[in-house]
UniProtKB/TrEMBL annotation:
GO molecular function, one term: DNA binding
Keyword Transcription regulation included in the entry's annotation: yes
Name listed for the protein in its UniProt record: Transcriptional regulator
UniProt keyword list: DNA-binding, Transcription, Transcription regulation
Protein species of origin: Kitasatospora phosalacinea
Amino acid sequence: MSPTHTAVTTPAELDPCGRHDHPDCGIRDVLDRIGDKWSVLVVVELAGGPRRFRELQRAVEGISQRMLTLTVRRLERDGLVRRTVYPTVPARVDYRLTDTGAGLTHLVKALADWSLAHRGAIAEARAAYDLEHPGHDVR
């Protein structure tokens, strides 16, 4: 292994999700959803209470209408968000966390708080790494 090798290798037998019959196989699928950048930001925003689509879009900086639509649909499918349509003209729709989704809020909020507190140190570490390893695009 070269000194610049940074990939982590794990024998298949040590990876429980590598076995289809292991009870933890579904963990990756769940982590993919709740670890997704947009899902985290939507959950953080919905932790404050129900929001309409445009309110969510304004609150989650940088998210496109299409990505927000996909994100709330996925969260709804996973039982983390409830979409409610009110019979008004025009129709009013809001999104709120389900009990399962609300159970995530303290974890996601802690992750968001940690990210905010450490973003400067991470930016400095990235800049130092990029100077030390020119041409290694790891984004």
